[in-house]
Design a protein that fits this description.
By secondary structure, the protein is mainly alpha-helical. Helices cover about 65% and strands about 0% of the residues. The protein has helices spanning about 5-10, 25-45, 50-55, 60-80, 85-105, 110-140, 160-175. It is built from seven helices and no strands. The relative contact order is 0.09. The model has no long low-confidence stretch (mean pLDDT about 85). The chain has a domain at about 25-140.
Length: about 180
């Protein structure tokens, strides 16, 4: 990307020597990846529910699979927003629902469907562990430590509220306007 930038810049513009480090920590990068994964999986559940249901032995649950797809997309969008923690915890809750649904397919009529359902169960269990670990770590990171500072004695005026009132009062008595 940096190789393309010089050809798009004017001659007088400052030159970019090198890119700086990313401001995303590995935790936030993982959350971002989980958000995009969630949207992709949700779209699959939404638009390919019939095929997915047939592969897993859940043919009679396509409506539920589509509803799960909507939930998965919403969790992904929330995870990509500023409310990452809420999005990740909703992913964890959704994963539990997915696991419960997949467990009902363990006795599907065809052996291939049972095998697919068990493989999907293992995959969802693994991603649940990642979701839970990431959500827990972000929750702990955002938790406040120590006692909050008390700013109750501050007025917001440089020399205090009393000095501001005196200044305005003096200007009003002399007929001058107070300067900003």
């Amino acid at each position: 990307m940096l190789n393309l930038v010089p050809s798009l810049r004017s001659e007088g513009d400052p030159k970019i020597i090198e890119g700086g480090p990313s401001s995303l920590t590995p935790l936030y990068s993982t959350a971002k990846a989980l958000g995009w994964f969630s949207i992709g999986l949700g779209l699959t559940e939404l638009f390919a529910a019939r095929r997915l249901g047939a592969a897993l032995g859940l043919e009679n649950r396509t409506g539920l699979l589509r509803a799960f797809g909507v939930r998965e997309c919403a969790a992904g969008v929330t995870t990509l927003s500023t409310e990452k923690v809420a999005g990740l915890w909703s992913r964890v809750g959704g994963d539990v629902l997915d696991l419960m649904l997949l467990a009902t397919a363990f006795d599907a009529p065809r052996r291939r469907q049972r095998t697919n359902a068990k493989a999907a169960f293992v995959a969802v269990a693994a991603i649940t562990a990642v979701d839970f670990a990431t959500a827990s770590a972000l929750t702990a990171e955002r938790r406040r430590s120590g006692t909050p500072k008390d700013y109750g004695n501050r007025s917001g005026f440089p020399n205090g509220a009393r000095a501001a009132r005196q200044s305005v009062g003096a200007h009003l008595r002399t007929g001058q306007r107070a300067s900003a």
